[in-house]
Design a protein that fits this description.
Blueprint lengths: L1 H24 L2 E8 L6 H18 L3 E5 L6 E5 L7 H13 L7 H15 L12 E8 L1 H5 L2 H12 L2 H6 L3 E7 L22 H4 L3 E2 L2
Parallel strand pairs: 1-2, 1-4, 4-5, 5-6
Antiparallel strand pairs: 2-3
Amino acid sequence: MAQDDETSDVTQFENEGADDQATIEKQIFRFIYVAPDANMSQQQLIAALNDHRNHIVSDESPAIFYLPSAEQPLVVKFNMDGSNEDDFEGQLMYNLRETMSWPVNANFDRKKIMELLTEYDFMDSDGNFKYEKVELNFHAGKTFWDRGNNEAVIAALFFELNAAKYIENGKMQFNVFFRCPPSKGSLDREKPFGDMNLDDINQRVIPKVED
């Protein structure tokens, strides 16, 4: 009888593990990078970030918000180990309402973002995704582009993540939002990520430009 109970417990544990994995495989893992500047509409940016948050809360998907600040970025996690959802409003939104100027350290950010993504382990050692899709979102403006961070951060991550391969098979999505009114700056639509064009990023990722 005891053996039957033990077998039943093991079977239940295995079934629960399978259910958890099935749930994960239907989820979207989201990463949201926010690099505001004085040219950007504070109201539009905050509304966009709230839209991200609402989707994350609605489908209970894992997500990371990242606000660069030299070597002390603000990181807000949802639905994962170390979650600090309250900091979305208490820290991220509060700080964006206080100022729209945040220093970007491109090399630090690129390494830190790769650490965060690796820490959360969204991909196994064979390159298979644990989630239905990985979605990386970047909200940046003219200052970010003028300082070459479009290449040093976005294009570099695109290359390091081998994103071209995963975009082709529908497992990864890069969404880039160039948030700058036309009267204050424009984007090179042919080469938005520079002349190096790592892994043909200029053809694979088309930034959405603010009207």
